[in-house]
Each structure stands twice: as C-alpha cells, then as structure tokens.
C-alpha cells in the first residue's frame, strides 16, 4: 500500500526572543493510504505542530515532508496553498462556519477557488451533505443546527473537494460524549467505506479507539513502541 505521508528527520524550532525552542526532534513517520491514525500525547508534546506540518499549514525547520507524492516543504507559499486546496480537508475543534450562510453555502466555500460552475458546486455540496447525513438541513444556518450537526457540516466542507487526506485537530473536543461518538463514527465510516486517509489529534482515549492505529508523542518525538 502506498504511503500518503512520509516524514524523514523532521525538526521544528520556534524562536522566542533570543531563545530557540525545538518542538519536534528528528521525527520519522509514514502513514499509508487508507489509514486512520490517532495522534495522542500530553499538552506540549508536538501533536498539533506535527499535524500542521502534514497539512501544509507550517514548514519544518529541518527534514523532508512528503504528502500525496509532493515534497511540500520545498513548495512556495502560493504553490503550497494550491496543493492544500487539492489534497487536504481540515476539521477543527471549532466549526468555523460562516453564520450568515446556509449549510450548503458553507460547504461550497472551498469550491469557490476552483473552476467548477455554480451548478457543479451546488451538486458537489449536496453530495457531501448527503454523505454526512445532513442533506435535509442544507438550507439551515449554523444557529439553527446543533453542535454535532455543525461539525457534520464542517466535515462535509472538508470532504467537498474530495481531498487525498483529512486532518482533524480535536474534532470532538467541543462535543458531549454521545455527539462525539456520532461524529467519530462518521469519520470511521469515511475511512472504512470511502477510503479516506485520516490523521486525527486527540487527547481522548475513547476517540482514539475509532482509529486503526494510535501513535503517542512526548517531548517532540514518537514514543518508542509506536510503528512509524
């Protein structure tokens, strides 16, 4: 099976005044196509930094980051933005929906940067909403939806461009247990039935159980015993 994600000797440093803080240390990681990986670890372990590198939201200080066959650490800012639009769907703890727009209009937003016609954008958004079970809520605005429904809209928005990879940062962190399980079950279905590759940061062991594989981080590196 092909690797969708391959990191080699990746380090990430941030400068704070005169001090340099290394958040990731010589990290190696491979994630195969169709995998569902949960990244776990204490606060400050580097989970979100790693997720941001995989999703092309940040760049490594050292090392190689290859995702979907592209050395994304070498891309220019504009090229990286185009790459993200084609290959990555983002799902965050907070839904980041536009409050004045309907569910369907929110889902269509990523497609506004494509060459698709208005009719094609509408059709794709309807398909994505159907996948997450909200095709009957297409005209509702965010304040007319529950938290779980809003997160489903956010997932549909992440899916609408048919990305290679879904990256999720604490996607159930703002939800109650029952609703969280429903959202995690949806992610599991997207992985198992639709073949989506998913990388999810979570602090919740119950959420991690929905993944195929759990990787644990501490102090900027994978804990021994993980399978990279």
Automatic annotation (TrEMBL):
Keywords for this protein: ATP-binding, Nucleotide-binding, Transport
GO molecular function annotations of the record: ATP binding; ATP hydrolysis activity; transmembrane transporter activity
Domain of life: Bacteria
Keyword DNA-binding: no
Organism listed in the record: Solimonas terrae
One Pfam family it belongs to: ABC_tran
UniProt similarity note: Belongs to the ABC transporter superfamily. Macrolide exporter (TC 3.A.1.122) family.
The protein, known as: ABC transporter ATP-binding protein
CDD domains with a match to the protein in the record: ABC_MJ0796_LolCDE_FtsE (cd03255)
Domain named ABC transporter: residues: 5-228
GO cellular component: plasma membrane; transmembrane transporter complex
């Amino acid at each position: 099976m092909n690797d969708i994600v391959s990191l080699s000797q990746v380090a990430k440093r941030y400068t704070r005044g005169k001090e340099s803080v290394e958040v990731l240390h010589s990290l190696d990681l491979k994630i195969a196509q169709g995998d569902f990986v949960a990244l776990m670890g204490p606060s400050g372990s580097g989970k979100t930094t790693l997720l941001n590198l995989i999703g092309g939201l940040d760049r490594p200080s050292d090392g190689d980051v290859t995702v979907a066959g592209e050395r994304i650490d070498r891309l220019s800012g504009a090229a990286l933005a185009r790459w993200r639009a084609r290959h990555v769907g983002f799902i965050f703890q907070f839904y980041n929906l536009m409050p004045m727009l309907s569910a369907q209009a929110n889902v269509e937003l990523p497609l506004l940067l494509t060459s698709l016609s208005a009719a094609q954008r509408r059709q794709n958004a309807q398909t994505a909403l159907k996948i997450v079970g909200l095709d009957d809520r297409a005209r509702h605005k965010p304040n007319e939806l529950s938290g779980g429904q809003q997160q489903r809209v956010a997932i549909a928005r992440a899916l609408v461009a048919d990305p290679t990879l879904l990256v999720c940062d604490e996607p159930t962190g703002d939800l109650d247990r029952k609703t969280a399980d429903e959202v995690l079950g949806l992610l599991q279905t997207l992985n198992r039935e639709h073949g989506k590759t998913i990388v999810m940061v979570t602090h919740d062991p119950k959420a991690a159980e929905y993944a195929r594989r759990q990787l644990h981080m501490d102090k900027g590196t994978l804990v021994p015993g993980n399978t990279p």
